[in-house]
């Protein structure tokens, strides 16, 4: 079912289906107008992010992003919303073939940080856009490599105790205090934050979003 009738007119805004302040900030950096399209109270948003046995990080982050896009499209169609494209994204951290999602608590965050310390890991961010006609455009994937410095358990615990790792894949935010622990990155800084701007701009232009 289309969200609107096909038109050559550009869309003045996009729906962002994410609660992440970082994604909102990055989208604003592009000069894109957006409105939030968040899960309803009756939606089980966490279930979308459940891992499947034997699933690779690449397959996981792509699948979750597509599932989020489909859920957001259904949300838009079910509500009283003006037609517009929808942007969704998902970020995961992977090391040794394992997926590091959001920590459950401070101790879980510390365990993750100890695993990352002194080593390299990959950060994957997948994003997708549902265009103004309700079509899911081919998702994009940004892959970056981050090297953490070796750090003592006490230093990692101090960082974990700030609370910053909670709610973040891999238990850290590169834009925050974790920056002092990061020796080097290869790839997209904005992708590590959660919204790779190069790929985002390309998808939004394909969906005829005006910015």
From TrEMBL:
NCBIfam families in alphabetical order: maf
EC number, as in UniProt: 3.6.1.9
Phylogenetic placement of the source organism: Bacteria, Pseudomonadati, Pseudomonadota, Betaproteobacteria, Burkholderiales
Transmembrane helix keyword on record: no
One GO MF term attached to the UniProt entry: dTTP diphosphatase activity
InterPro entries for the chain: ITPase-like_fam, Maf-like
Pfam families linked: Maf
Function comment: Nucleoside triphosphate pyrophosphatase that hydrolyzes dTTP and UTP. May have a dual role in cell division arrest and in preventing the incorporation of modified nucleotides into cellular nucleic acids.
Family, per entry: Belongs to the Maf family. YhdE subfamily.
Cofactor: a divalent metal cation
Subcellular localization: Cytoplasm
Record keywords, A-Z: Cytoplasm, Hydrolase, Nucleotide metabolism
Active site residues of this protein: 90
Record site feature (Important for substrate specificity), residues: 22, 91, 175
GO term, biological process aspect, one: nucleotide metabolic process
Catalysed reactions, semicolon-separated: dTTP + H2O = dTMP + diphosphate + H(+); UTP + H2O = UMP + diphosphate + H(+)
Record-given protein name: dTTP/UTP pyrophosphatase
EC class (word): hydrolase
Main location: cytoplasm
